[in-house]
Amino acid sequence: MTDKFKQIKGVSLADQAREVIRSAVLNGSIKPGEKITIEDVAMQLGISRTPVREALKALEGDGMVRLLPHRGAIVEPFALDEVRIRYVVAGMLEGYAAELACKRQGSELAEKLEANCRELARLCKKKKVTAAQVRELVATNRAFHDLIREGSGSQTLVRLLDTLRQPSSYSQNYWSNPESRQISLEIHQAITEAFRAEDPILARKLVEKHLSEARERLITARRES
């Protein structure tokens, strides 16, 4: 697991270890079913094993890893039912975040969302994409949703939604499909227009619709993979 973990300044050692492990899982550096050893993490972060052990216990509570006695942990693959539940809850929370963000920032946030849509449109032009381009698509999509979540002004919503994130590996089949890419681009553009029109109710409904449809397409893609 060379270079998968980098230090974060200004937080406790256990929280630092928890966040870097979590980020490595979410960005696909560590994949479902892969083992995480306490010694590797401790060595790369330059800390003792105790805070790493505490971090893994916390991540087990989040359902992200399963502890292995005296051996570290293994990244838990989410069952499709779990993926569905996480998307349902995320849809409700992010829909509310969109309503709040639209009320707070409206057309101002629309400018940032529009810039993201332009980048997504550029990436969506190719029918066939490389693995690196898929990762870029996943990151651009995530940035769009982060703008809405953070625009809500509620750190509670941001934290709750953060715990519901799926590892990027779960989204790669979805974003490899040109039809899925086009559908997501179009709904992102519609959401952006709702923000530009400063219509918080429409923004909420569109985000909820988007995550509901994305959920079913992602689950279908996982089943077919």
How does this structure look, described?
By secondary structure, the protein is mainly alpha-helical. The protein has two domains: about 15-75, Winged helix-like DNA-binding domain superfamily/Winged helix DNA-binding domain (Arc Repressor Mutant, subunit A); about 80-225, GntR ligand-binding domain-like (Four Helix Bundle (Hemerythrin (Met), subunit A)). About 70% of the residues lie in helices and about 5% in strands. A three-stranded antiparallel β-sheet has the order 1-3-2. A hairpin with a 3-residue loop joins strand 2 (about 65-70) and strand 3. Helix 2 packs across helix 3 (about 50-60), helix 4 (about 80-105) packs across helix 6 (about 130-150) and helix 4 packs antiparallel against helix 7. The longest helix is centred in the middle third of the chain and has 25 residues, at about 80-105. The model has no long low-confidence stretch (mean pLDDT about 90).
Question: Key features?
Answer:
Four Helix Bundle (Hemerythrin (Met), subunit A); 225 residues; 70% helix; 10 helices; mainly alpha
Within the CATH hierarchy, at the fold level, what is the topology of the largest domain?
A: Four Helix Bundle (Hemerythrin (Met), subunit A)
| CATH first level of the largest domain | Mainly Alpha
Query: What's the mean pLDDT score?
Result: 88
Strand order of the largest sheet: 1-3-2
Order of helices and strands: HEHHEEHHHHHHH
The low-confidence parts are none
Q: Determine the CATH superfamily of the largest domain.
A: GntR ligand-binding domain-like
Largest sheet: 3 strands, antiparallel
Helical residue percent band: 55-70%
